[in-house]
Amino acid sequence: xxxxxxxxxxxxxKALWQVxxxxxxxxxxxxxxxxxxxxxxxxxxxxPNTATSxxxxxxxxxxxxxxxGVMSNMDSRLSTILQSLGILDKFDFVLTSYExxxxxxxxxxxxxxxxxxxLPPSSHxxxxxxxxxxxxxxxxxxxxxxxxxxxxxDEVKPLEPTEDCNFSVHGDVxxxxxxxxxxxxxxxxx
Length: 190
Hints:
Elements: H1 9-17, H2 26-37, H3 50-63, E1 69-72, H4 78-84, E2 93-96, H5 97-100, H6 107-116, E3 126-129, H7 132-141, E4 145-149, E5 157-158, E6 175-178, H8 184-189
Parallel strand pairs: 1-2, 3-4, 4-6
Antiparallel strand pairs: 5-6
């Protein structure tokens, strides 16, 4: 079930797991999984460059009067997860698909991100993510700079259309592929 269906994260996950055959112990098991296991710090791990890269981006954004946010196809637990990872304070805002009532690549969630940042709907932004379909396609549709984080590459390079990911870029819109988010500040400064 998607966020656009209007069902909250907890209810969606509960409906999915009720078919597990756990019977009367379902409620206790579900509560532990939903609240502790999949929301706890042991369930999530930052990639090696993430903390230092976010610190650098936070400093750059502060010095250049811009907002740094998270936009994710996640439920309301995202802020708790980011807090447990020690990175929530790096962001000006957190926007989930459940809050926006739309999943990436829908333009709705991208427009809500601009709204959260206090920017007009026609503003240009940079969006990075690890999914061509959800992140790059959504950003390009909005005429934003799109950055695909792809650990299979070892340098920053233009994102070229391929058989698997076909797209067209118009005007000044930029689409790049980077090995990790530490390269984003260079794209902003350049």
